[in-house]
Amino acid sequence: MIRSILAICILFIGGLHVQLAAQSVTVSKEMTIRNDVAYDIIGIIEDNIVLYRDKGTERVVELFDKSMKHLFDREITLERKNADVYAIVPQDTSFTIIYGYREKRNYYMRARKYDQFGQMIDSTLLLEGGSEFKLDNFRFEVSEDRSKTLLFTTRKSDMFYTYLIDNDKLELSWEKESKLIGLNVRKDFRGILVSNQGEANVLFEIDNSRYEKKSHHLTLLGFDQNDGYYENKFTFDNKLTVDLEMEYDNLNRRIILAGLVSEDSDYDATGYFHLTESIDALDEVTMIEDQDFDVKFLEELYGKKLSKKKRLNNFVTRDIVLRADGGFLLFAEMNKEFFRRSAFNGGVRGGGFNGGGRGWVDIYNEDVIVFAVRPDGSGHWKKILYKKQFSQDDGGVFSSYFLFKTPSRLRIIYNDEIKRNNTVSEYVMDPLGNFERNSLLSTEYQNLKLRFRDAVQVASNVLLVPSERNFKLSLVKIEY
Description:
Blueprint: E1 9-11, E2 16-19, E3 24-27, E4 31-32, E5 38-45, E6 48-54, E7 59-64, E8 70-76, E9 84-90, E10 95-103, E11 106-114, E12 120-129, E13 139-142, E14 148-155, E15 159-166, E16 171-179, H1 185-188, E17 189-194, E18 200-206, E19 217-223, E20 230-236, E21 240-249, E22 254-262, E23 268-269, E24 271-278, E25 285-288, E26 290-292, H2 295-302, E27 312-313, E28 315-322, E29 328-340, H3 343-346, E30 360-373, E31 379-385, E32 389-392, E33 402-405, E34 410-415, E35 423-429, E36 435-442, E37 456-459, E38 462-469, E39 472-479
């Protein structure tokens, strides 16, 4: 069933508000971002919508009310202008900025907490180091309940550094400097999760090539406030992993691993695997079983002729969604890129016009597959959600989809086409895999180009999406 879109437009003081059949869409003012380094949608803090912008020479937060009316902007002033912002963590009534800087020979890691108006309400020193402290570039992960932030980084090929910050107490809970024997930390790193209790689970993928297939395995390391770390190994039956996802079930302290496997390829999948196990019940070594794709499923996706290859071509894993009954869903999407060089620039060598001619990149993001797994680990159902997206030289930032979660439904929201005047569509799916496709809104004459990959769900019925067009940024609020 395709919902009709009502052609009713109401101009609000805060922005353009369009009332649709089942949802409303409100657009903020446009902001020029030509010289911006980055921006981050912090979300809804109390009654205000907060956007963080790094303008290079200054950092500001833009404040909007719930009708997307721009209230004001406020500069964020840190001790040093060249401080590195590591993480911005939103909570219900405040948001926290975690950052670091050097002053003379010392290094300082600090955190500042701000209210809904961008006013600082607390500040603390998390860590101080001398001239020997060499770590500046951190990545971060936030727990599901947003109470913990984990900063992590590597040094050389075997050193792994972790810092666990309690966002509520605004303090450093623990820190670790770990020398990991037998791992190339930078090369083998695959993902990291932090639990609500402040435990870090780090996944590494070792020897994932056809030449080392017999020794291919995953290693899961667990870090917490105790000394050392625990280690678990996951092996495969002579298979390679094409792509995989990891999730943590905070309610039951379970780790979930799921992904695609192949006998000899890093982009053509012959089957899929999944493992759900309590962290405390994991064996030191666990064999992961996989399932081949059945012909009927491949025929549904490719047709009878193309399905004879018995493989999924160019699919990558995107999301794991936990079900209330203890099962989960794995989402995979077709994603491929073609690099082309034209006859015009193909013969240029050296530093001539166009820098030697890098050509163009064609980006395809197409069908989405959903695998449902029961609590006991058996397969439940598989569904194919058809879409076709094509773009060139944009990094695919307007492609793919956003997964909007509610207790009873999932909404897979995406741009039908990557162009100026576009229709936004959604698949609405229930827990049994039944779904319908709806037209959500039209961007024609609205000067919108929506980046659903960077959208943020801020409530059970509210989604914030950035729109970028001609170096101008707008925030779009979709409310169901």
